[in-house]
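Working notes for the structural subgroup meeting. M.R. asked for a predicted model of this chain before we commit to crystallization trials. I am recording the input and output together here so anyone reviewing the notebook later can reproduce the run.

Input as submitted:
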Amino acid sequence: MKMFYLTRTNLYWMITLLLCFALLIPVANSLAGSPPPQKEKPQYVIRVGTMLPTGVSHMKYVEKNSREFEALTGHRLKFELYAGGVLGDEFAMVKMVQEGELEGALLSPFGLADAVPETMILSLPFLCRDEYEMEFILEKYEAVFAGYARERGVELLGVFPAGCSPVFSTVPLSGYGEIKDKKVMTFETSTFPNRPSGADSIPLSFSEVEPALNSGKVEVVFGPPAVVVTMGWYPYIRYAYMTCVTSTIGAFIFNSDRYRNLPEDIRSDFFTEFLRKQQTMNQKLIRRDNEIAMLGLMKRGVKIIQIPPEEMERRREATKPFWDSGVGKWYPRELLDNILRDLEAYRAGEVTMENKN
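Returned structure, recorded in token form:
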């Protein structure tokens, strides 16, 4: 009898298992034939162009920040990044942003000056003695430059120091004054005369600088060390003249109409809090990258030449007429006077980053 009950129980279990398998087979077949679950499509696609090449550290920061913000918005927004100048040079990208063909662009000071001429004042030679002075000016005048940008149909959503630009050369120079006798790189189609007075300037696009250095067409370039390394110019550099000719900046512009069409929470979360936090973090990373790049150049045998401070002061005084030549043409006199006044106060310790206003 006991065996009978055990056999009957086993039979019930077998029937139950067979029924389960019978029910699972069509369900499994149905699942196998159906497509995998799809994520919701983003409501807003933000296309951003830049000359930064894919894979370099600066671009990795941009990609990381973009993915973080997409998650912050619940993936309602998605960035499409077009790196390496695939959309054209910076001046082409500025036009695309202004005409609404592109939402945003990450720019060098030359591209930014094409969009907002008043920002040319930030690229004046010897205006700032180091990147911290530039950081001070950018924070104090952020709203001023944003207003100029808005008048031209773009939002200036971030401007940050990218490091001082020493003089890098393929040939020896006994002093900064000898630059005027050398072949100096400048950027083609830039409306700003970004070259020393009297220098034999060679207008080039970013992609043309490396072959120009290789062929000897160009002997002198400017830029933060990380840019020199990132853009592949470093194999030809033999000398580095350590002075802050300009404090280079980077900027993020956005089409004003597209910006206003974004929901308020996305605008406030991204274009204020998130972007500001990331900007502060990235400035530290950029400083680190410049230090690492400079050490790398030294290891490659680049000769470091210190320019005496008194010579730099002479150059600064000699450059002031050039500063004045831009008044009324690119920027108003009041803006130049205010910036010079605030820099003097900053140097004298009368104003700091905390009480700059």
